[in-house]
Amino acid sequence: MEKQPRLLASQLLLKNCVFEVSLNRVFLTWKEVSTKKKRVSGSIHHPFKVDPGHSVRVSEVLAVGELDLDSGMKEDGRWQKMPQKPTEAYPHAFTVSYVERARHHRWRCCDVTFHCQEWALCQQWVQTIREQLAALTGRPKHLLVYINPYGGKQQGKRIYQQKVAPLFARASISTDVIVTEHANHARDHLRTEAELKQYDGVVCVGGDGMFSEIVHGLVSRTQTDNGIDQISPEEKLVACTLRIGIIPAGSTDCICYATIGINDPVTSALHIIVGDTQPMDVCSVHHNNAFLRYSLSLLGYGFYGDVLADSERKRWMGPARYDFSGFKTFMTHNYYEGTVSFQPATDTLGTPRDKSPCRAGCLVCLHNKRLCPEHSPAKCMADPDSSDSECEGGWRVIRGKFLAINAASMSCACPRSPMGLSPAAHLADGTADLILVRKCSRFNFLRHLLRHTSKDDQFDMTFVEVHRVKRFRFLPRHCQNDSELDLRENGKRLFSQICRDHPACGCSPAFSSWNCDGEVLPHAAIEVRVHCQLIRLFARGIEDPPVFEEVPTPCGI
Ligand SMILES: CCCCCCCCCCCCC/C=C/[C@@H](O)[C@H](COP(=O)(O)O)NC(=O)CCCCC
Ligand SMILES: Nc1ncnc2c1ncn2[C@@H]1O[C@H](COP(=O)(O)OP(=O)(O)O)[C@@H](O)[C@H]1O
Ligand SMILES: [Ca+2]
After folding, report:
1. Active-site residue flag, 208
2. Which residue's CA lies nearest to atom 5 of ligand 1?
3. Where would I find the DAGKc domain in this sequence (predicted)?
4. Which domains does the chain have, with CATH numbers?
5. Which ipTM did the prediction report?
6. Of the four listed, 24, 26, 302, 349, which is most buried by Cβ atoms within 10 Å?
C-alpha cells in the first residue's frame, strides 16, 4: 500500500500521557510515547501493557472542535465532561469525534480530546482536520427528515430527538424535520411539494412501511421530473439521485437490518453522517398493466400475506402483532392454488443457494449492474426434475398448491430472522429470489419456518424451491379464465367456487393477499419486475466483523 505523506505530527497530551499524534489523508493515528518521563500528572502507568496505537480513518471522523478548558464548553456552545484537568504545560485542547465499531455491526460515536502546549498548534490541528473533512465528497450537509410518530412502539420522535439530532448537530448537518400527520403524508409531500434541490438526502424515521412511503414519493417524483411514465410495466425507470437514510423505529426494520447489519438508530445516523452509499433494487408490481406499488423487501402471498392481513387489525399490539398473527396463520395452514411464471436470471452471477451472502462492496452486485440484467434477453430452461414446470416464450411456468409464494429482492434479514428469507439474495444485483413453498404437512411447514431463525438451509426441503428471477407473474387458479377479476366485486361468485372445490368448507379459501413491504395489495394476480439499483441508501451493506482486541482505547473508558 502506498504510504501517505504526513500532514501533521505532534506530541500531544491525552489522559495525562504523551502521545505521538499524526494525520495523513487517510488516517488519524495516536500512539503513546514510551518514555519513562511520559507521565505528566496523576495517571497510573501500566508497565506491562504495550499500547499498539489507535488509528481512525479520516472518512470516519465525524467532527472536530476546540475545547474551552476554563468553561468545559465546546466551540459550538455545548457542554462536555472535562476529559482531564487542564495542566499548566498543556493549556489548549481539541476534541475529535469519530466512529468506533462495536459488536454485531453496531457503531458508536467516540470522543478523544488532545491537549496542546500552544494555542497555534491546537488551531492548526483543528483547521487541518476540518479541511480534510471538507474535502470528503458524499457527506450530506442538509437533510429532509420525516418522522412517523406511530410506527413500531411509537417512539420515532423520541428516538430522533434523543439519539439522532445531537449527532447531526455535532456533524454540522442541518435538517428540516416533518413529523407526519397521517399515512402517505411523507409520500405525497415528496411527490409534489418538497423542494428537493436544496437537500443532500432524505431521512425516514420509522419502519419498512414508512421507508416504502419515502421510496414511492421519491421514485414517482424522479420519474415525473424526467418525463417517464411509471405506470407502464415496460418503462425503463430513472434512478433517484437523492440518497435515503433509515433511522429504525418500526416493527420489522428489515431494510435497515439487511443493509447495515443491525437496527440501531445511532449506527444508522453515523452511516448517514459519513455519507455511505448503498444502491438497492426495487420491484414494480402491476396488475393488468396498471401500476400498483413498489416493493423493496418482501412480496409474500399465502402465509406472509395472511399474517399481514390479520395483523393490520391488531396494530394496537405494536410489533408483537406479527408474532400473534404469525401463530394464528400457522395454525390455519391455508394453501392457495395458482400459476407462477417467471423469467430466470440466467446470465447473472450468483444463485439463491450460494453460501457467500451479499456484503459491503459486493462483487456480485457490481458485476451484475454492469450487465444491467433487466435489458438482456432471458433464457428459459425447464427444470427436468419438476413435472409441472414448462417453458412459454422465455417464461418458466409452475402450477400448484402453495402455502407461500415469496419474492425477496434482498435477504430480508431482520431481528426475527437474522439470515433472512433468502440469505444469499443481493441488495443490488437486479434480481429477486422467488421462493415457492408447496402444500405440505403442518409439521414440515413449521420445520421450514424455524429454519429462518437459524443458520440451517430453509430451501433444502422437498416442498420448497427457489429461483433467481428478473420478472415473475402470479395468477390464482380462480382467476385463470378471467382477464380482470377484482376480489371484492366477485366475492359471491368466488365463495360458491370455493365451496364447490372444498365441499367440507373447513378448508382453504381461494385467495390470499399479497404482503408488499407490510402493505396489503388489493389484487391477487400480479406481475413483478426488478429494477436494478433504482434507489440509493445511506448505508454500505453489511461489513465483515472487525477483530476485537482487548486493548483499552480512549473511547473505552
Ligand atoms: C414459528 C417461527 C416462525 C418464524 C418465522 C420468522 C420469519 C421471519 C421473516 C420475516 C421477513 C420479513 C420481511 C419484511 C417484511 C416487512 O416489509 C413487513 C412490514 O414491516 P413493518 O413496516 O416494519 O411493519 N413485515 C412483515 O411482513 C412481518 C412478517 C413477520 C412474520 C412473522
Ligand atoms: N402520522 C401517521 N399516522 C398514521 N399512519 C402513519 C403516519 N405516518 C406514516 N404512517 C403509516 O404507518 C405505516 C406503518 O409505519 P412504519 O413506520 O412502517 O411502522 P411499522 O413498522 O410499525 O409498521 C406506514 O404504512 C405509513 O404509511
Ligand atoms: Ca436483488
Report:
1. yes
2. 449
3. 138-289
4. 6-134 (2.30.29.30), 137-276 (3.40.50.10330), 284-528 (2.60.200.40)
5. 0.96
6. 302
